[in-house]
C-alpha cells in the first residue's frame, strides 16, 4: 500500500438504511479528516450542521457495524493484493468524564472496552491496512462489603467471609471475544494467508485449541512459566534451556516513558520505564506439548505447538531484559521461518498505535456524547479516520520518496510551508509525505532533539494547519467575490 484513499472512496457503498444518512456520513467524514482532534463545535461552524452531527450519533437507526462495514470491505480489497497479512488483536479501554448512560468500570473511571482487529501488511514496513473486526463491551463494578481481619484465640478471622465466586457460563466469558474476533476476520475469506497475532492476554488454552482445530494460523505471546509435562514438573522457560540459540539480532529499543500511575505502584508494572538503547537479542525455538489446564473449556487433552523465545541474555545493569515467548502454528524449521515468527509479533505494536491515534489524534475520550450507544457510533466512525492518520504516519516514515501531492494539493502545501517557516522549519521545493509530517510536528512545537514526534504534537500542528487553510480559503473566496 503506497497511497491512502480519499474518505469518499473508503466509504463507498456505505448502507445505513437511508440514503440521507449515507450522504451525511460521507460529509461528516470529510469534516473529520480536516481536523480529527477538534471538538464537534470547532469541526463545524454552521449550527445546523453541528446539530446534524449530534443527531447522527444519537440515531438508533445508525448501527456501529454498518458505519465500519465499508472500511472493512475496502480493507479486505487491500489484503487480497498481498500474499501474507497479519491481523493484530487487542483490547483497550476508553474513559469519559461526567455522567454518561450505559458505561461500566474502566480502571478507576467510567467507560467501556473496545476489542479491535487491525490488518497489517506482511512485508517489513508493516503498513496498517485497516480495521477488520471490532466489538465493545462494558464491565460492571461488583460492590462487596468491606473485609475485616482480626486475630481470635491465635487464629486469623476474616469477616464477612467472602462468598465463592459464581461460575461464569461459557457464553458470557469475556475471553470469548478473542475467538469471536478471529471468526469475524476469517469470515471475510481473504485470499491472503492470514496470521493472527495476540499479546499475553490471549494466553488461553481453549482459544489456541480452537484456532488449531480450525486450521487458523496464529502467533500468541505467553508466559514462560506455563507448566509442561504430564506431572507439570517443568515450565516453558526450563524446556527452552535445552534449545540452542538459532538467531542473534541487534535491534534499537525506543524510550518508554514513566507511567502516570502512582509512584508506589510502578514497581509492580510488567513494562518498566526505560531509556532509548540498542539491545542484542538471542532467539531460540523448539516444539512443545501443552497439557490441558483444569479450567479449559474444551475436549482437547493436549496441544502441540511451536515455541519461539526472544531474550536478552546480558541487559545493561538496572535495565529490564527483553523477553518474548511466542506460541505459534507457524513452521520453525529454518532461520527464515523463525525470523518470520518474530516479525509477525513485532507487527502487533501497530494496533497500540491505532489506539493512540484514536485517543490522542481523534480525541475520542473528549467527545461530549451522553450515552454508550452514541459514543460507540462515534468510535466506529473515527476508527477509519484514526487508521488514515496511522497509515499516513507509517508510510511517511517507511518511504521517504512518497510525494506530498499524493494527499495534499498545491494550496495545502503552500499553507504548510508558510506555517513551518514561522517555526524555522523549511520544506523542499517538492516535499515528500515524510517532510510534511515533520512539518506538522514542527508547527505543533516539536523539537528535533526530543526524538520522533508523538500524536499530540502532530495533532496540534495538523489542527493549526487546518485552521490556517480554512482562513486562507475563505479570504480568497471573499477577494474573488469583491
What brief labels describe this structure?
482 residues, alpha+beta, Transposase Inhibitor Protein From Tn5, Chain A, domain 1, Transferase Inhibitor Protein From Tn5, Chain A, domain2, 3 domains, ten-stranded mixed beta sheet, two-stranded antiparallel sheet, 37% helix
Folded structure, characterized:
This protein is of the alpha+beta class and about 475 residues long. It has 3 domains: about 190 residues, no CATH class; about 140 residues, Alpha-Beta Complex (Transposase Inhibitor Protein From Tn5, Chain A, domain 1), CATH 3.90.350.10; about 80 residues, Transferase Inhibitor Protein From Tn5, Chain (Transferase Inhibitor Protein From Tn5, Chain A, domain2), CATH 1.10.740. Helices cover about 35% and strands about 20% of the residues. The chain has 14 helices and 14 strands. Helix 5 runs parallel beside helix 11, helix 10 packs across helix 11 and helix 12 crosses helix 14. The longest helix has 27 residues.
- Let me know the number of strands: 14
Instruction: Give the overall shape.
Output: globular
Poorly predicted spans: 260-266
Mean pLDDT: 85
- The topology string of helices and strands comes to HHHHHEEEEEEHEHEEEHEEEEHHHHHH
What is the total domain count? 3
The main pleated sheet reads as: 10 strands, mixed
Q: What share of the residues lie within helices? A: 25-40%
Strand content: 15-25%
Gyration radius over CA? 25 Å
- For the record, give the distance between the C-alpha atoms at the N and C termini, rounded to a whole number: 45 Å
In DSSP terms (H or I, runs of 4 or more residues), the helix count works out at: 14
Structural category is: alpha+beta
Amino acid at each position: 500500500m503506497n497511497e491512502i484513499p480519499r474518505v469518499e472512496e473508503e466509504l463507498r457503498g456505505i448502507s445505513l438504511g437511508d440514503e440521507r444518512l449515507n450522504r451525511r456520513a460521507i460529509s461528516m467524514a470529510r469534516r473529520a479528516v480536516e481536523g480529527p482532534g477538534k471538538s464537534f463545535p470547532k469541526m463545524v461552524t454552521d449550527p445546523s450542521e453541528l446539530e446534524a452531527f449530534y443527531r447522527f450519533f444519537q440515531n438508533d437507526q445508525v448501527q456501529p457495524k454498518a458505519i465500519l462495514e465499508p472500511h472493512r470491505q475496502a480493507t479486505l480489497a487491500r489484503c487480497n493484493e498481498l500474499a501474507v497479512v497479519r491481523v493484530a488483536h487487542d483490547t483497550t479501554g476508553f474513559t469519559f468524564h461526567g455522567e454518561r448512560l450505559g458505561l461500566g468500570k474502566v480502571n478507576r473511571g467510567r467507560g467501556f472496552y473496545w476489542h479491535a482487529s487491525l490488518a497489517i501488511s506482511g512485508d517489513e514496513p508493516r503498513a496498517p491496512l485497516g480495521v477488520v473486526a471490532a466489538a465493545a463491551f462494558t464491565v460492571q463494578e461488583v460492590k462487596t462489603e468491606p473485609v475485616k481481619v482480626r486475630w481470635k484465640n491465635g487464629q486469623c478471622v476474616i469477616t464477612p467471609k467472602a462468598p465463592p465466586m459464581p461460575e461464569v457460563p461459557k457464553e458470557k466469558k469475556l475471553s470469548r471475544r478473542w475467538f469471536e474476533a478471529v471468526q469475524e476476520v476469517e469470515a471475510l475469506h481473504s485470499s491472503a494467508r492470514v496470521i493472527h497475532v495476540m499479546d499475553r492476554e490471549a494466553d488461553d488454552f481453549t482459544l489456541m485449541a480452537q484456532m488449531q482445530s480450525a486450521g487458523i494460523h496464529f502467533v500468541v505471546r505467553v508466559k514462560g512459566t506455563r507448566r509442561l509435562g504430564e506431572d507439570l514438573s517443568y515450565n516453558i522457560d526450563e524446556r527452552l534451556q535445552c534449545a540452542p540459540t538459532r538467531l542473534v539480532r541487534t535491534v534499537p529499543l525506543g524510550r518508554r516513558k514513566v507511567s502516570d500511575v502512582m509512584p508506589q505502584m510502578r514497581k509492580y508494572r510488567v513494562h518498566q520505564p526505560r531509556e532509548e538503547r540498542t539491545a542484542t537479542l538471542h532467539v531460540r525455538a523448539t516444539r512443545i506439548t501443552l497439557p490441558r489446564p483444569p479450567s479449559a473449556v474444551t475436549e482437547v487433552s493436549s496441544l502441540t505447538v511451536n515455541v519461539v523465545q526472544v531474550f536478552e541474555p546480558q541487559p545493561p545493569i538496572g535495565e529490564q531484559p527483553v523477553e518474548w515467548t511466542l506460541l505459534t502454528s507457524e513452521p520453525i524449521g529454518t532461520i527464515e521461518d523463525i525470523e518470520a515468527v518474530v516479525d509477525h509479533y513485532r507487527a502487533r505494536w501497530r494496533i497500540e498505535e491505532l489506539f493512540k491515534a484514536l485517543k490522542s489524534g481523534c480525541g475520542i475520550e473528549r467527545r461530549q456524547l451522553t450515552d454508550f450507544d452514541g459514543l460507540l457510533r462515534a468510535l466506529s466512525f473515527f476508527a477509519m479516520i484514526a487508521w488514515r492518520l496511522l497509515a499516513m504516519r507509517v508510510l511517511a516514515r517507511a518511504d521517504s520518496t512518497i510525494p506530498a501531492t499524493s494527499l495534499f494539493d498545491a494550496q495545502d502545501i503552500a499553507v504548510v510551508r508558510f506555517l513551518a517557516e514561522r517555526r524555522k522549519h523549511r520544506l523542499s521545493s517538492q516535499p515528500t509525505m515524510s517532510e510534511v509530517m515533520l512539518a506538522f510536528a514542527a508547527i505543533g512545537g516539536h523539537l528535533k532533539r526530543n526524538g520522533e514526534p508523538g500524536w499530540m504534537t502532530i495533532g496540534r500542528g495538523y489542527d493549526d494547519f487546518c485552521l490556517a487553510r480554512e482562513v486562507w480559503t475563505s479570504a480568497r473566496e471573499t477577494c474573488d467575490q469583491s
